Amino acid sequence: MEFRYLGRSGFKVSAISYGNWITHGSQVEEDAANACVKRALELGITTFDTADVYAGTRAEAVLGRALAGVSRESIEVFTKVYFPTGGGVNDRGLSRKHIMHSIDASLKRLNMDHVDLYQAHRYDVETPLEETMLAFADIVRQGKALYIGVSEWDADQITRGAELARELHVPFISNQPQYSMLWRVIDQEVVPASEREGLSQIVWSPMAQGVLTGKYLPGQPPPEGSRATDELSGKNFISRWLTDDTLTKVQELKPIAAEAGITMAQMAIAWVLQNKNIASAIVGATRPDQLDDNVKAANIVLEPAILTAIDKALEGIIVSDPRLTVSPKTRF
Fold it and tell me: Exposed (0-12), middle (13-18) or buried (19+): which is 50, by Cβ within 10 Å?
């Protein structure tokens, strides 16, 4: 396993991290979740990402139980706050009240006294940024989180957040955006801003919800049991990629991966990790053997000819407009 510094800090994370969005507490049973976490650890993954909203707060608790007994010093655990976790008017957003309540609730579910990274799951347009950043700074000073980060913030939001973080002397070191061969919206503005401000990216969906594995075929229904057929595991989210045009072009990646001697999944993850501002690529799993394949991508370097061939194969379907962001109202 390769390890990379997270932002402008001395904190290292595994280049492949394990995330439990739409798996733990919903798509897979707890025994399967435990087996996946165990295998991740065996393969050298030390970084684990979750959020309070995943599976209606159940995902944090499942991860906490799966990591019970593992040396806390040997792993990095991340969680997030923003989306609704209850029916109250203050059970959402990035107000001081919600943040301070949520960190305690997350730590209780994880059965830990701190997380390594606490992340704002989206930008809150209804709360002053100063209020949010001060709450995060207080959580760091209380020892409940060691570092802070954000998810899906745009370049301007990152810049303003970093300015406040410097004033508050709080380590603001990461952003967690969607990023893949198909979805490249961070390249134009977010990555340059992050490099200026000392942030790295921890990216989600490097395989575009599994589309870049090549298992979804144009003109054919999705395989039974796949994410595209599961109402609880992102069926609506993956639908953007399930057009015949996109699936046809993705099939053109198969000979490229074959020539390189790697799987489609490995090529997708390795492509993401070619970007030096990417500290880690988050993968999920419903079976332990999926991780065996994915982890090998950490040490794969794609030659320039392969990168050029990928761009040519996907020409016309790559999304790179920085104005296209994930809606703050999307439930993750």
Answer: buried
What is the end-to-end Cα distance of the chain in Å, rounded? 28
Residue environment code for 113-136, b if the CB has 16+ CB neighbours within 10 A, otherwise e = ebbbbbbbbbbbeebebeebbbbb
What percent of the chain stands above pLDDT 90? 82
How far apart are alpha carbons 48 and 70 in whole angstroms? 12
Catalytic residue among 54, 82, 118, 123: 54
Question: Considering its fold, how many domains does the chain have in total?
Answer: 1
Question: pLDDT tens-digit profile of 276-304?
Answer: 999 999 999 889 999 999 999 999 999 99
Alpha helix (H) residue ranges in the chain: 30-42, 58-66, 96-110, 129-141, 155-168, 190-197, 235-238, 244-251, 254-260, 264-273, 288-295, 304-313
**CA separation for the pair 268, 205 (Å, rounded):** 10
- Look at the alpha carbons of 15, 20, 23, 29 in this order and tell me if their dihedral is positive or negative: positive
Strand, helix or coil for residue 107 = helix
Q: CA 182, CA 207: separation in Å to the nearest integer?
A: 9
Domain that holds residue 183: 3-313
Task: Give the Cα-Cα-Cα angle 104, 108, 109 (nearest 5 degrees).
Answer: 120
Considering the domain boundaries, does residue 326 fall inside one? no
Q: Looking at the domain assignment, is residue 321 inside a domain? A: no
pTM above 0.85, yes or no: yes
- Concerning whether 54 is annotated as a catalytic residue, the answer is yes
Residue 47 lies in a domain: yes
How many Å apart are CA 24 and CA 33, to the nearest integer?
Answer: 6
User: Is 56 strand, coil or helix?
Assistant: helix
If you count them, how many residues does the chain have? 332
Q: CA distances (Å), 221 to each of 104, 171, 212, 251, in order?
A: 44, 47, 16, 15
CATH number at residue 35: 3.20.20.100
Convert the pLDDT of each residue in 69-127 to its tens digit. Answer: 999 999 999 999 999 999 999 999 999 999 999 999 999 999 999 999 999 999 999 99
